[in-house]
Amino acid sequence: MASTAYDIPTMMPREDILAVHEQGADAVVELVENLFTQLADQREMIASLTARVNELEDRLAKNSRNSSKPPSSDDPPTKPKPKSLRTRSGKKPGGQKGHPGRTLAVVESPEHVVWHGPEECEGCGRSLLEIEASGYERRQVVDVPPVVGLEVTEHRAQRKRCTGCGGTTTAPFPAAATSAKSVVYGPRIKALSVYLMEYQLLPYERTSELLRDFFGSRAPGAGTLHSVLKGCFEGLKETEEAIEEGLRGADVSHFDETGLRVEGKGMWVHVASTDKLTHYYAVHEKRGVEASEEIGILPSFAGVAVHDGLSAYRNYERCAHALCNAHHLRELTFMDEEHQQEWAGRMKELLVEIEEAIREEAALGGACLASERVEDFEVRYQRLLKAGLKANPPPIRTGKRGRPKQSKGKNLVDRLTKHRSEVLRFMHDFRVPFDNNQAERDLRMVKVRQKVSGCFRTRRGAQMFCRIRGYISTARKQGENVLAALESVFIGDPVISSLQG
Fold first, then answer.
1. Residue 368: which of 305, 324, 422, 427 has the closest Cα?
2. The overall pTM is greater than 0.90
3. 3-class secondary structure, 231
4. In 23, 115, 172, 256, which residue has its Cα 20 to 30 A from 382's Cα atom?
5. Which has the higher per-residue pLDDT, 338 or 4?
């Protein structure tokens, strides 16, 4: 009886069954064995196809709210827009009570005062030109001064002959004029150029066009702008090394990575950061251990490393680890809404409740939660893990070689169980944040830059962007004026208030 694993057994005609019976017991046994073999093959295939269908349905159901997919990958709004994970704060829109505000205030000593006198009486029309004013009202207009173009400062280094030894000494030029060229751009126009390109993300040509509109034909062109970026990049080498050292000594640092197109190839940008420092490792072909070793921050880091659970980070045992719970909230949302697993919704509520309890305690000046409350949270966490394991049992072995593939829910339960201390580290150590949003915010501008330009045509360009952007991010975190910070680079003294992570 010829058949394949795809054949579906159907009812045999009575005549065929009787014909097999007449052939004897061996023929009947062979027929039954073939039927059971086909049924076993079909059962295995049905299980495989069911798992595949579930996987594809899960993939279609994922969006930026219940997974780590970016919002740009969400489907067009033919369906209701995914509800945000953010909860209402209860605050009204706009500035909050006690916020100082930024309303324009009257300046007591304005740069310019323009008097306006009435020419004739509104009542009878008589001339008022010769009559002295009895008072006045005032209005102030805040505006930029007229743009008159770039100004040129000529530096003349005098030579003097010593009356004692007869030697001649020439005065040194200032830092802005140390180039051997007779005419160069100054630090302020260079800083503005870098500000527009690397902070406001304008391309070379548009930056050059803007500068020409502001300052006329003397403004730098695209070729000069590239040289300016190169000078800024080289001037920040020691500053970048100092930022790396500060991150190595931080109590808590955030680590993350994102993909980037460079020279037509997919590469990775790695970030290490705190609320005071930012370091981008420009580009690397690898995402894992090889990249971390070359960057050199994580291998010598001894604080708490906050990350999203990438296996490469776990190779470093010198530091403690904390997992990003924003990722867990999205995965729990998926299991709750798409698979109707009640434990996932309750686990999400528990994690948010712990975060809120920590925020309230910290606002009161506390440094830790009461031991009774911590124990209660731990017990509830363990109870929900048991419920999660019950809802996501281990896969049934098929007899094939290798470990059977687990469901997404089982993987999530295993991670929350195996890495329990890393998930809840924020509950035991108030220095550790609930999530890894710090690193994700620091990486966001890399993705914005890629959206604006599509990719980096050269690896050198990517390296320049990352080093300069890391310096700008660090300056902003420390309250520095970005333009002033960039200007300091071109006079040879980059400004960073603190190198403590």
1. 427
2. no
3. helix
4. 256
5. 338
